[in-house]
Amino acid sequence: MSAEVIYGSELSQQLKDEMKNEVAEIKKQGVTPNLTVILVGDDPASRSYVRGKQKASDYIGIESNLIELSSETSQNELLKLITQLNNDPNVHGILVQLPLPDHINEQSVIEAISPDKDVDGFHPVNIGRMMTGQDTFFPCTPYGIIQMLKSKNIPIEGKHAVVIGRSNIVGKPVGQLLLKENATVTYCHSRTKNMEQFIATADILIVAVGIPHFIDGTHIKPGAVVIDVGVNRIEDGSLTGDVEFASAKQKASYITPVPKGVGPMTITMLMGNTIKSAKNNL
Ligand SMILES: Nc1nc2c(c(=O)[nH]1)N[C@@H](CN(C=O)c1ccc(C(=O)N[C@@H](CCC(=O)O)C(=O)O)cc1)CN2
Fold it and tell me: Interface pTM (ipTM) of the complex?
């Protein structure tokens, strides 16, 4: 067997074209969607992701502001800025690029953003809404994964979805969104014993651990759908996933590559959340 490759980059382009039309309609009604991104410090990867967000915004017609702060910025200064943006009626989405410098408490910052402008979907209020089946801003990477599965009409209901990784940004919420689609969800993590047993029974396998080639094809169930969330830069400067692509592709029915897989969907879903927020203001 050789899996079909699901390119998030292609789906992203389609969705962004649809969003472009949607934004044009919103503008006719007198509202210009605005996304304000805060970048603290000068981490090169974060800078590149922020640039990607600005580029996507420009393409779709979303107004984007970038506020760059030095790595010395105090937590209080950052919280004050967020309060100002919360109170600015022209700002529909606020995003603080993560990770933050060590002296700033990420959770406090996330909780300072108004849930109504939390286009990352990280605020506990939005996480709570997601967990109780309400419509809200869903976290972008997990939501992008669901869209990728749906784009290929991959059945989720009744399937055994195994999520490897339990981060607040990806692992935990993707499990919740799969549950919402009626999958039977198992979480695996660094303390899981005999992880191979879980991998071997996964119809849908989501790998989000941030370790290059954490799994290969050995234990993957024939015909499984393999979603690789890892974006790992390795010694030769190239990007690689958490899954060893060549051997996994031989076992899977569908697989996502790295790059051009899940990554681009993160930014596209952010655009969708920003549009949703602007529409709430019509
Ligand atoms: N506030 C947030 N911070 C972070 C998030 C987030 O969703 N919100 N996610 C990641 C970084 N991220 C977006 O911010 C992100 C990661 C990867 C990609 C992507 O398109 N990756 C490409 C490869 C890009 C490259 O060449 O480096 C791919 O996989 O094809 C987009 C966005 C952590 N922080």
Answer: 0.98
